[in-house]
Backbone:
């Protein structure tokens, strides 16, 4: 298990690293007589490393009417993690993080949507890494909030800011303004930051469900919802009469059912509902399944794992303040060599607080789940994944045997592919759209049954 723990800890640091701080010299407001304007800021990993500039506020409006702000030019040729750092000790001073000062806020003005990162460093260069939060608006000031409650330590003396942390790379030089870095009490879930309603009640027949956690079903044995090697705190809460798992200080959570592995070979989908109060931006949420193989133990030589990711642009899309219903075809966990000995699930991502409910495998078509009366005698599902590269899965369901046509069109309305045309039986149907030879962009796929049609949009990225 040690090797597994090491892999997951390293992965966590890559996906959602955290730092902590309480500044002695704060707030960092870049004003004359304040803090930050006369500090020794060093720019790094930004090709020619143009200096951080203290300039007049480009838009003294909205949440920030300050006179002066910091301006960072993120060069196209610079690294995605280009940033600037204060001088050890003499700038921000020596400080600690505690429950009384576990929230860091920063105001940003950007022309693009990308992550902003903050990292705290000790005198010897040691750090827990950066926490990243994306801006959600452009060309106006926005305050971003970073929660450091899981990283309480003493003795930090440097702050590092990554104003335009975009792993996809920049298409141009981006000028980012930032200001008013503050340190205050935070952490946990504040009043009003929890769901007001329960997650939708599943309607699958119990005979077609293997449930890990869901009130309507009998759950199989789960050994832990937060393994010793993970980076999360979990507690059982009740939302509108429904039992829910609440993860706080969430980086990644290990969920283990090793004492009684799950055989999901007869299941077609994996389901879970999540809710977060945190801003999504360009953040992501990842679901990983781990199969221990026929020997039922980790590192036995036959274990495999596979991960599926979601963000604000996928289907389903991550949103803040709403229950997000994630229903994943088991075929999307394509790296699993077997689904007969599932023993572990890892959830990880950028939201710091996540409510989780209705975690189960099922063999019912997702297309008829909780829909009530259908407006048509067929249902066309959203493709998955979306966006995709280079292939995606399209599913549709028929109430009765029908002659159907499933075609793909470009944005000009021109047919570019015919995926299926002919008689199809009742029930669920799954097809793959391979787009290796197609240009990146938006496409539409249409299912026609008799005189009725249903159209969905999909996005190919390369």
Residues:
């Amino acid at each position: 298990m040690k090797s597994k723990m090491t892999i997951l800890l390293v992965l966590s640091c890559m996906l959602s690293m955290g730092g902590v701080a309480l500044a002695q010299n704060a707030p960092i407001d870049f004003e004359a007589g304040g803090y930050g304007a006369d500090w020794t800021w060093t720019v790094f990993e930004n090709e020619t490393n143009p200096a951080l500039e203290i300039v007049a506020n480009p838009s003294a409006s909205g949440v920030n009417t300050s006179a002066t702000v910091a301006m960072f030019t993120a060069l196209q040729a610079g690294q995605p993690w280009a940033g600037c750092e204060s001088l050890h000790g003499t700038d921000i001073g020596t400080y600690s993080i505690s429950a009384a000062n576990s929230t860091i806020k920063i105001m940003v003005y950007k022309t693009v949507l990308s992550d902003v990162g903050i990292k705290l460093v000790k005198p010897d260069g040691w750090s827990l890494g950066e926490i990243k939060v994306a801006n959600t608006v452009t060309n106006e000031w926005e305050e971003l909030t970073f929660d450091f409650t899981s990283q309480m330590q003493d003795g930090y003396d440097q702050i590092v800011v990554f104003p335009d942390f975009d792993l996809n790379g920049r298409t141009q030089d981006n000028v980012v303004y930032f200001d008013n870095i503050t340190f205050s009490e935070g952490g946990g879930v504040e009043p009003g930051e929890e769901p007001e309603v329960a997650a939708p009640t599943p309607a699958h027949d119990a005979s077609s469900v293997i449930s890990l956690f869901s009130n309507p079903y009998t759950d199989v044995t789960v050994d832990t919802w937060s393994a010793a090697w993970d980076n999360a705190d979990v507690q059982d809460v009740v939302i509108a009469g429904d039992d829910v798992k609440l993860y706080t200080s969430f980086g990644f959570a290990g969920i283990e059912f090793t004492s009684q592995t799950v055989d999901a070979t007869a299941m077609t989908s994996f389901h879970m509902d999540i809710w977060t109060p945190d801003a999504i931006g360009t953040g992501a949420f990842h679901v990983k399944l781990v199969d221990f193989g026929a020997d039922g133990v980790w590192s036995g030589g036959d274990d495999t794992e596979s991960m599926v990711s979601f963000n604000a642009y996928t289907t389903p899309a991550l949103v803040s303040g709403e229950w997000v219903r994630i229903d994943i075809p088991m075929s999307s966990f394509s790296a699993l060599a077997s689904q007969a000995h599932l023993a572990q699930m890892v959830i990880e991502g950028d939201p710091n607080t996540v409510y989780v409910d209705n975690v189960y495998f099922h063999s019912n078509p997702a297309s008829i789940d909780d829909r009530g009366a259908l407006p048509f005698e067929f249902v066309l599902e959203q493709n998955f994944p979306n966006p995709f590269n280079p292939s995606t899965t399209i599913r549709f369901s028929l109430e009765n045997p029908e002659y159907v046509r499933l075609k793909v069109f470009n944005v000009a309305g021109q047919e570019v592919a015919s995926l299926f045309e002919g008689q199809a039986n009742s029930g669920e149907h799954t097809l793959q759209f391979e787009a290796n030879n197609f240009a990146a962009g938006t496409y539409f796929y249409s299912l026609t049954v008799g005189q009725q049609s249903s159209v969905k949009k999909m996005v190919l990225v390369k």
In short: Residues 1-23, 186-192, 365-376 have pLDDT under 50 and may be disordered. The longest strand covers residues 242-256. The helical segments are 2-15.
